[in-house]
Write a structure and sequence with these properties.
- This protein is an alpha+beta fold.
- The chain folds into 3 domains: 2-127, Rossmann fold (3-Layer(aba) Sandwich); 137-155 and 227-358, 2-Layer Sandwich (D-amino Acid Aminotransferase, Chain A, domain 1); 158-224, Dna Ligase, domain 1.
- It contains 11 helices and 16 strands.
- The protein has helices spanning 15-28, 115-123, 132-139, 141-150, 163-168, 170-178, 206-214, 262-266, 282-298, 332-339, 344-358; strands spanning 2-9, 34-41, 47-49, 72-74, 83-87, 93-98, 101-104, 158-162, 184-188, 198-200, 219-224, 229-236, 245-254, 272-275, 304-312, 315-322.
- The strands form 4 sheets. A 5-stranded antiparallel sheet has the order 14-13-12-15-16. A 4-stranded mixed sheet has the order 3-2-1-7, with helices on both faces. It has a 4-stranded antiparallel sheet with strand order 8-11-9-10.
- The longest helix is centred in the C-terminal third of the chain and has 17 residues, at 282-298.
- The two termini are 17 Å apart.
């Protein structure tokens, strides 16, 4: 039986969403093939052994959280070893046995951004999903856009800056930002789930929006608002060096809000409708899939990703690439694959197998 260390929680502002994803995986993973070791990372960064109980982390009115139960999980002490160690609350150490693959379902910084991937690479421990470079690139919206533009892929116009630049070159930056036109979206460059994002419809709101974004990251991205449908598709790495596999498209229809913010995504079931498959004609779907595959390859993607688009009057514009997308059973990534004929349990199995095969 394959032993999977499910790594969830983490230090980012998306801690609760990662826990909800863990609940989905724990409830759906094929128990005849996989033994799960649930490792919850607290908001303070402690790696703890958690109960194998999906109900503890299910998405409810309040977001779930990893509780520090006093245990500590230690990674192998050298490359080549796959043995994980448990240190109990009383300080007693015992072996957890060997782990075949780590499934890091961590969203946001300190998990999805290449940090954990680098730690696992150093120890030569196989893991599911993207490597260090792709994870770091896709986590940084400014760098993602730069790479996609270099690959000839259309993105929304943007301006990026740090606090020192904002303070030293305010007049120049404001002139460039105003050139984008209203409305604009002000975002932290490295955050997910729309955390720290503000829609600015009046230039008087810009300063406050910048401060909200800077509270999440050192770099701010100001992006021109795109007029069009919000559509997404899911990507899986190709088998045996083959082309990436791309799902049918899904669409987000927001009602009663300015944009698809954190509350609409996770806390208000009436704020948005996720439609999958989206209504696209054959030519549009072919173009969307082709562009998603190109974007995945442009960042050096592996394992999985969700590519988000705006479908405007001029065609598809890539909004961002998410290398560890929301993965609850009702999230867009598994929903798109389900519409494409791949069930949630089958998707989990495929990702684990890809992770093991990529790093043998």
């Amino acid at each position: 039986m394959i032993r999977v260390a499910l790594l969830f929680g983490g230090r980012s502002s998306e801690h609760g969403i990662s826990c909800a994803t863990a609940a989905g995986v724990l409830s759906a993973i094929d128990r005849e093939r996989f033994e799960v070791l649930p490792i919850g990372v607290t908001r303070a960064g402690a790696w703890t052994l958690q109960p194998d109980d999906a109900e503890l982390f299910a998405l409810r009115a309040e977001l779930p959280e990893v509780t520090d139960n006093g245990t500590r999980v230690r990674l192998p002490d050298a490359a080549g070893s796959r043995e994980f160690t448990l240190v109990s609350a009383d300080g007693t150490a015992s072996s957890l046995g060997d782990v075949d693959v780590v499934f890091p379902i961590l969203h946001g910084r300190f998990g999805e951004d290449g940090t954990v991937q680098g730690q696992l690479e150093l120890l030569d421990v196989p893991y599911v999903g993207n490597g260090v470079l792709a994870s770091a690139l896709a986590m940084d919206k400014h760098m993602t856009k730069s790479v996609l533009v270099a690959a000839g892929i259309e993105v929304a116009p943007w301006v990026a800056f740090t606090r020192p630049r904002w303070e030293a070159q305010r007049e120049l930056l404001e002139r460039r930002i105003r050139g984008l036109g209203l409305p604009v979206f002000v975002k932290p460059s490295r955050a997910g789930s729309s955390v720290g994002v503000t829609r600015v419809a009046d230039w008087a709101e810009l300063d406050a929006a910048v401060e909200v974004a800077l509270a999440e990251d050192a770099t701010v991205l100001v992006e021109a608002a795109m007029s069009g449908r919000e559509v997404e598709c899911a990507v899986l790495e190709g088998r045996d060096g083959g082309e990436p596999r791309v799902s049918l498209a899904g669409e987000i229809v927001v009602t009663g809000r300015d944009f698809y913010d954190f509350e609409a995504k996770y806390l208000d079931p009436d704020a948005a409708q996720l439609i999958c498959p989206a209504e696209l004609h054959d030519g549009e779907l072919r173009e969307m899939r082709r562009t998603a595959s190109r974007a995945f390859e442009a960042i050096g993607g592996a394992g999985l990703a969700r590519v988000d688009f705006f479908l405007t009057g001029e065609g598809f514009v890539v909004n961002e690439i998410n290398t560890m997308p929301g993965f609850t059973p009702i999230s867009m990534f598994p929903s798109c694959w389900q519409a494409s004929g791949v069930s949630y349990p089958e998707l989990i199995t495929e990702l684990v197998e890809l992770g093991i095969a990529a790093r043998r």
